[in-house]
Amino acid sequence: MPYRVCFVCTGNICRSPMAEAVFRARVAEAGLEGRVVADSAGTGGWHEGEHADPRAVSVLGEHGYDSEHVARRFEPSWFARLDLVIALDAGHLKALRRLAPTEKDARKIRLLRSFDPAGDDDLDVPDPYYGGRDDFEECLEMVEAASTGLLAAVREELEGRAA
């Protein structure tokens, strides 16, 4: 059974689709396709059925990432099939903890930037939606920096399963 990771932001059109795309690329580079599955969702359903924000798609494409995406809302029932739920900021972390059916499920929730070894005390990935192109570039940089550490943590979990 694959290790399942879900990235969660507000509307699932900017940060979480970017994190999903970057992490999928890291998984493929590591040769872990099929062993690790990534997807994304939003805490709210405002953009359900929509594609990712065109600015996010543009920035991802310019950096070589695939950006096929349709927004959806995170459902509490998903905790049962997920190994890790990655919040993009503290607000998402709180919302997800409220949705977690059990304490075990709540322990699956982590902030993305907590995996960035060079990160600072601010673990939020700022929402680029109301900003400009530079904000999307900054978001991508933060996501890329944390994705390497996240992949290392997931790889460790996979090795623990095999032992």
UniProtKB/TrEMBL annotation:
One of its GO terms (molecular function) is protein tyrosine phosphatase activity. The keyword Signal does not apply. It is an enzyme of class 3 (hydrolase). Keywords: Hydrolase, Protein phosphatase. Pfam families: LMWPc (PF01451). Residues 3-153 form the Phosphotyrosine protein phosphatase I domain. InterPro entries: LMW_PTPase (IPR050438), Ptyr_pPase (IPR023485), Ptyr_pPase_sf (IPR036196), Tyr_phospatase_low_mol_wt (IPR017867). It catalyses: O-phospho-L-tyrosyl-[protein] + H2O = L-tyrosyl-[protein] + phosphate. SUPFAM superfamilies: Phosphotyrosine protein phosphatases I (SSF52788). Its EC number is 3.1.3.48. The active site is at C9 (nucleophile), R15, D127 (proton donor). Belongs to the low molecular weight phosphotyrosine protein phosphatase family. This is protein-tyrosine-phosphatase. It comes from Streptomyces actinomycinicus.
